[in-house]
Specification:
Largest sheet: none
Structural class: mainly alpha
Number of strands: 0
Order of helices and strands: HHHHHHHHHH
Strand content: under 5%
Helix content: over 70%
Number of helices: 10
Oligomer: single chain
């Protein structure tokens, strides 16, 4: 009984950083969840880890979305257009990605992340417009960025949130706190789409998902609060977002080089 309790505690604790990252920067959940499930919790089947993490990330994204919605920072109409087009793009991207070597995909994704991080730091002085919403002038741009982001997310298989926030900022010029909040709609949509396919294939550990989600709820609450505080400090949240991107990209490249 003690061993089960210890393992359950480990599962809850593993969910905390996933939820915190989602609440803070609107992404990074999947790229943290899968390694934590495999290497820390000890999930043997990678398919179970991917499916369970997709479910947990989707639920935690919805939890974070509720926290941000209470602050009034979610741009719902932009989210609806971006997420719906992103789901279509993700399905196409996943089909294309299966034709490439997995390690090559990871390395390409890492370099893409570095480029995104550099662009965000270059433009971090731009505060954006808080009243941003879609109009007849930018709805096509939002839809295009949504489809493109979804395509890349599905193609690389991980890291959708890292691309959604910059995509929202580039297509609407909204502040990063609004992009973080709004991105959670797309993160949840992508996660649910992935989770459903794994549920149908029987690749979900429901017990693990429950404990992981519990830890994630704690993390998303803390991360959302930190995001609201940091957004009031000029460029701080953008710098943190870009720094996390560089760290994850560096780790992916390091793992890629050592597996060659």
């Amino acid at each position: 009984m003690q061993i089960d309790l210890s393992h359950a505690t480990l599962e809850v604790l593993s969910g905390v950083p996933v939820g915190f990252t989602l609440g803070l920067i609107g992404g990074g959940g999947s790229i943290l969840a899968v390694p934590l499930m495999v290497y820390l919790v000890g999930v043997k089947d990678p398919h179970v880890a991917i499916g369970t993490s997709a479910l947990a990330v989707a639920v935690n994204a919805l939890t974070g979305l509720i926290q941000h919605a209470r602050s009034g920072t979610v741009q719902w109409r932009c989210a609806a257009v971006f997420a719906s087009c992103g789901v279509v793009g993700a399905l196409c991207g996943a089909w294309l990605g299966k034709a490439m070597d997995g390690q090559s995909l990871l390395l390409l994704f890492a370099f893409l992340m570095i480029a995104v991080g550099i662009m965000m730091l270059r433009d971090h002085h731009e505060s954006g417009h808080e009243d941003t919403s879609y109009t007849q002038k930018n709805i096509v741009k939002i839809a295009s960025f949504g489809a493109g982001t979804g395509l890349l997310s599905g193609f690389f298989g991980i890291g959708g949130g890292f691309l959604i926030v910059p995509g929202l900022m580039a297509s609407t010029h909204m502040p990063i706190i609004n992009a973080v909040s709004t991105s959670l709609v797309a993160v949840a949509a992508f996660g649910i789409s992935t989770a459903v396919s794994y549920v149908l294939s029987g690749y979900i550990d429901w017990g693990l998902a429950a404990f992981f989600i519990l830890g994630g709820v704690i993390g998303t609450y803390s991360g959302s609060h930190c995001a609201r505080v940091l957004c009031k400090k000029d460029g701080r949240l953008t710098t943190i977002f870009a720094s996390i991107i560089f760290i994850v990209a560096g780790y992916i490249i390091w793992r890629g080089v050592h597996t060659l």
